[in-house]
TrEMBL record:
GO biological process: cartilage development; cholesterol metabolic process; intestinal lipid absorption; liver development; proteolysis
One Gene Ontology cellular component: Golgi membrane
Membrane topology field: Single-pass type I membrane protein; Single-pass membrane protein
Annotated EC: 3.4.21.112
Keywords of the record: Autocatalytic cleavage, Calcium, Cholesterol metabolism, Endoplasmic reticulum, Glycoprotein, Golgi apparatus, Hydrolase, Lipid metabolism, Membrane, Phosphoprotein, Protease, Serine protease, Signal, Steroid metabolism, Sterol metabolism, Transmembrane, Transmembrane helix, Zymogen
Subcellular location(s) of the protein: Endoplasmic reticulum membrane; Golgi apparatus membrane
Gene3D superfamilies: Peptidase S8/S53 domain
Main location: endoplasmic reticulum
Start and end residues of each stretch annotated as Disordered: 1036-1063
Protein name (record): Membrane-bound transcription factor site-1 protease
Location of the MBTPS1 fourth domain: 620-883
């Protein structure tokens, strides 16, 4: 009997091993086994480019409410009759889509050659909210196979050991991709797992949660009708002008597969209700009006989750932005990609940069921030304020597997891949909540950011709140009570690198206030208000509570479900010579009408605490303080301002903010490493005390100057302030060549400035006999033993005779742009240094190109030159490498050449300028605005002591839930809940994190190879055990044991053994 048992067990183990080996080599059953080269089952690189332009003579007429088509037509007719223009030609553009049968809040109208007065008359109608040009959106998708030389092909359902990906910008930018890892040491790379399993979606599947009952919308390129991966496609709608619902590109199918595929490359929520919105044509074209109609239809269908894997830099497309707010107000959880314009900072895409949207960044499977993933901060608030923390969360976006266009799987990379990962996770999480009324855009975002696992060594503008943790989010969401929360949840200006850039520079008395832009999330309702007059500031008496001043700026109304809270922090006068750490907190109470019938009188309240920790140092000497001029930098949107490097033809718009923490981040980091303290001026020159600063740094300035600013700056320099200017190209002929389509006048027009506003800079410098020219030059050269590259810079036209001027031989790029001819110009003056003649006066340094310190398109940095110029301006020490340079020439008198003039015809700078205003067709300076005035909060001291580490204290108390303790979870009736443990913030996802001990993605490749060996060894151990037992049994004499009668209750219990009670 024992030998029979042994043979039987060996047969079973051998069978299991052979079946596993077969499944490992053959893969899952599939009617068609695609080859490695099959387009439906391949590993591809996703290249994305995004651009938009205005459609001529088409306007989106927004109304203040929803009206029928007849009513909308009557309102527009009535408004246009009031123009008095009987010859005006117009008609309503028909929109044949599923939303056309329902009331709408906008209309698309074609008005031929409408004048600005016609449009203003339209907006004057009491029922018309806004008139906006129609936009045509282009999204270029390119799928490129991994080069065979770089990576051997593999079967479709197998994993490879290494992956090499490439990507280009999602929006207007050139291509970047990330390295294989953060460290240079060699190591084994993990196989690419299925993303749903690595995030532990199978834990929730085992509990019976699969997305059932949740409506998820995919706004993309469509989906074929009979795709084998989807079983619950409720509706497919077409919003384009093509007569098809199918996906001709594969992108929409891939996104839908990551969310809801039921086989092969399995999605997160296979039982969710898929609603497919085809908003892009096969030519990758879309229009704003298509999105508006589709958004309205999503609200009508009561969609719960909406994925939008597109984006662009235009956060001033008002109809689009307003409609996203309306979606949030109607409980639609929008998840959107932040863009593929990394690693540059200040490259967030809209709508992911909005407060109410879950903005998603990308990481690879080694938990490195993907190089392509866009970085914060938001730039809406510049120049006067400071940007918000974005992305909100990061997750896998590199080499993720999803559904092929017709069948099979493919691997793609990009934040447009990371976005559906989060959208699928959100859909799955929503299905786990018994009381669906608790699930709304704010509560879901609160759960995601409170549960996110922070990545070590990565700052908040790269990772947001951290990496998506599905299980911890499930724990929080299923014990959630409606409340308010903060993002970020604390302010620690000493915590590096996470709190970069705040932690990179301490505060001191006399410095510009440090502004932290906090988002208040309201999970209690769509609207809310801040209770009392303002939030309460409570310094800690035992921890230097009287050493700082705090000012708070906020909107008293929270809508939709969020609002900003600007916290301005400045050192008090008594801290001028003090160094130490300061602690306090701010208390904010939010009241919100309950969204449904509530027992609490129809209003809910929630109080949240914002802990603050600040490092204060004595005020640095004047020579070490540099003031960055942010006020005079302009960027897209709203105006069209060209790039500083004309070689960047595929990315023509200057849209990164020109801030020391965005595209001048590396320069800022360098200055801090050299011991300089860098502050930002977000107001006119009349609003700072020049006696506090050694150097005013002006880079790439496009704005005009108030007359009062020019007067004050001259006086400040006479009194010891120094000035460094990095200019850029300006040439009216080239500007006419590089033209754009003006969305207001409906005509092609030239940019109103070049890379810099040289005529305005010359007005600023004319008193010292200095000026820049309209020459446009580029080329490589060597200066002071440093290799340099001049990229679309200008030259110095005039300079004082006793100044130092450096000249180089450069190519005439203007001639190349205008006539396609090449010429080299000898002795082009590019650098000038000058000591003003007044006693105690400051120094001035000019350089004609900013590209060497701009991260956007820097090829060779010139930080060494900036150091030399600061040595000259701050300490009056002229570097010998410049004063004795062989390239030093006589100062150009400039009398033989006219200075550049402002563009007259077609100049619309006044539309976007803070300085100019229209005045009878001739722009004039506006009245000088008042300097920003901060209302300092009145302290209410408390006798408290702050924890040593704010983050650890906050992470344990996020949303009132202790993440270190596992709460009892709601479970499906009759289904046992698997055991799991919450992740600690520093843990990595390892195989033992998933119940069952082996992660499916790694099991196939690494463990699967050893299964037959384990089976054989196990069989031998079992065989040995049974042989030993059999030998012992034969050697012992048989002995008859007395039979004992069991009690009756034990017999009854034995008779029922093996039967499970019904729950």
């Amino acid at each position: 009997t024992a030998l029979q048992s042994v043979f039987f067990i060996m047969i079973i183990l051998n069978y299991i091993g052979s079946q596993w080996e077969g499944s490992r080599t053959k893969g899952p059953p599939n009617p068609k086994q695609p080859s490695a080269c099959d387009s439906n089952c391949s590993q591809l690189t996703l290249k994305l480019e995004f651009s938009s332009k205005v459609v001529e003579d088409e306007y989106i007429i927004g109304f203040i409410g929803y009206f029928s088509a007849k009513a909308r037509s009557l309102y527009i007719s009535s408004a246009l009759r009031n123009t008095g223009d009987d010859m005006l030609e117009w008609h309503i553009v028909p929109r044949e889509n599923p939303a056309s049968d329902f009331p709408s809040d906008f209309e698309l109208v074609h008005i031929r050659q409408a004048s600005p007065s016609n449009l203003l008359t339209l907006e004057d109608h009491p029922y018309i909210k806004r008139v906006t040009p129609q936009r045509k959106v282009f999204r270029m998708l390119k799928y490129v196979s991994v080069p065979e030389a770089a990576e051997p092909t593999a079967p479709c359902n197998a994993s490879t050991r290494t992956q090499k990906w490439q990507s280009t910008s999602l929006s207007l930018g050139s291509g970047f991709w990330h390295a294989t890892g953060r460290h240079s040491s060699r190591r084994l790379l993990r196989a690419i797992p299925r993303v749903a399993q690595i995030l532990q979606a199978d834990v929730l599947w085992q509990m019976g949660h699969t997305g059932s009952g949740v409506k998820v919308a995919v706004f993309d390129t469509g989906l074929s009708e009979k795709h084998p991966h989807f079983k619950n496609v409720k509706e497919r709608t077409n919003w384009t002008n093509e007569k098809t619902l199918d996906d001709g590109l594969g992108h929409g199918t891939f996104v839908a597969g990551v969310i809801a595929s039921m086989r092969e490359c399995q999605g997160f929520a296979p039982d969710s209700e898929l609603h497919i919105f085809r908003v892009f044509t096969n030519n990758q074209v879309s229009y704003t009006s298509w999105f508006l109609d589709a958004f309205n239809y999503a609200i009508l269908k009561k969609i719960h989750v909406l994925n939008l894997s597109i984006g662009g830099p235009d956060f001033m497309d008002h109809p689009f932005v307003d409609k996203v707010w309306e979606l949030t107000a109607n409980r639609v959880i929008m998840v959107s990609a932040i863009g593929n314009d990394g690693p540059l900072y200040g490259t967030l895409n809209n709508p992911a940069d909005q407060m109410d949207v879950i903005g998603v960044g990308g990481i690879d499977f080694e938990d490195n921030i993907a190089r392509f993933s866009s970085r914060g901060m938001t730039t809406w608030e510049l120049p006067g304020g400071y940007g918000r923390v974005k992305p909100d969360i990061v997750t896998y976006g590199s080499g993720v597997r999803g559904s092929g266009m017709k069948e099979g799987c493919r691997s793609l990379s990009g934040t447009s891949v990371a976005s559906p990962v989060v959208a699928g996770a959100v859909t799955l999480l929503a299905s786990t909540v018994l009381n669906r009324e608790l699930v709304n855009p704010a509560s879901m975002k609160q759960a995601l950011i409170a549960s996110a696992r922070r990545l070590p060594g990565v700052n908040m503008f790269e990772q947001g709140h951290g990496k998506l943790d599905l299980i911890r989010a499930y724990q929080i969401l299923n014990s959630y009570r409606p409340q308010a929360s903060l993002s970020p949840s604390y302010i620690d200006l000493t915590e590096c690198p996470y709190m970069w850039p705040y932690c990179s520079q301490p505060i001191y008395y006399g410095g510009m206030p440090t502004i932290v832009n906090v988002t208040i999330l309201n999970g209690m309702g769509v609207t809310g208000r801040i209770v009392d007059i303002q939030p309460i500031w409570q310094p800690y008496l035992t921890q230097n509570g009287d050493h700082i001043d705090v000012a708070l700026s906020y909107s008293p109304l929270l809508w939709p479900r969020a609002v900003y809270l600007d916290v301005s922090i400045s050192a008090a006068k008594k801290a001028a010579t003090w160094e130490g750490i300061y602690h306090c907190h701010i208390m904010v109470t939010v009241a919100s009408p309950a969204e449904n019938d509530s027992e609490v009188g129809g209003e809910l309240t929630s109080t949240v605490k914002l802990p603050i920790k600040v490092k204060i140092v004595p005020t640095p000497p004047r020579s070490k303080r540099v003031l960055w001029d942010q006020y005079h930098n302009l960027r897209y949107p709203p105006g069209y301002f060209p790039r500083d490097n004309l070689r960047m033809k595929n990315d023509p718009l200057d849209w990164n903010g020109d801030h020391i923490h965005t595209n001048f981040r590396d320069m800022y980091q360098h200055l801090r490493s050299m011991g300089y303290f860098v502050e930002v001026l977000g107001a006119p020159f009349t609003c700072f005390d020049a006696s506090q600063y050694g150097t005013l740094l002006m880079v790439d300035s496009e704005e005009e100057y108030f007359p009062e600013e020019i007067t004050k700056l001259r006086r400040d320099i006479d009194n010891g302030l120094s000035l460094i200017i990095f200019s850029d190209w300006y040439n009216t002929s080239v500007m006419r060549k590089v033209k754009f389509y003006d969305e207001n006048t409906r005509q092609w027009w030239m940019p109103d400035t070049g890379g810099a506003n040289v005529p305005a800079l010359n007005d600023l410098l004319t008193v010292w006999g200095m000026a820049f020219s309209d020459g446009l030059y580029e080329g490589d050269f060597t200066l002071a033993d440093h290799d340099m590259y001049y990229a679309s810079g200008c030259s110095i036209a005039r300079f004082p005779e006793d100044g130092i001027v450096i000249a180089k031989n450069l190519k005439d790029q203007g001639l190349e742009v205008l006539k396609q001819e090449t010429a080299v110009v000898e002795g082009v003056p590019i650098l000038g240094l000058y000591q003003t003649p007044s006693e105690g006066g400051g120094r001035i340094a000019l350089y004609g190109d900013s590209n060497c310190i701009d991260d956007s398109h820097r090829q060779k940095d010139c930080f060494w030159l900036l150091d030399s110029l600061l040595q000259f301006t701050s300490y009056s020490m002229t570097p010998p490498s410049l004063s004795h340079s062989h390239s030093r020439v006589a100062a150009p008198p400039g009398s033989d050449r006219p200075l550049p003039q402002r563009l007259e015809a077609g100049n619309h700078l006044y539309r976007y300028s803070k300085v100019l205003e229209a005045h009878l067709g001739d722009p004039k300076p506006r009245p000088l605005p008042a300097c920003p005035h901060l209302s300092w909060a009145k302290p209410q001291p408390v006798n408290e002591t702050a924890p040593r580490t704010l983050w650890e204290a906050i992470s344990k108390l996020s949303l009132g839930f202790d993440l270190g303790q596992s709460r009892p979870s709601r479970n499906v009736k009759g289904v046992p809940a698997p055991r799991f443990r919450p992740f600690v913030s520093w843990e990595r996802v390892e195989p033992w994190d998933i119940p069952g001990s082996i992660m499916p993605g790694r099991y196939n490749q690494e463990v699967g190879q050893t299964i037959p060996v384990f089976a054989f060894l196990g069989a031998m151990v079992v065989l040995f055990f049974f042989v030993v037992q059999l030998t012992k049994a034969k050697s012992k004499p048989k002995r008859r044991k007395p039979r004992v009668k069991r009690p009756t209750y034990l017999q009854q219990q034995q008779s029922t053994a093996g039967k499970n009670p019904t729950v």
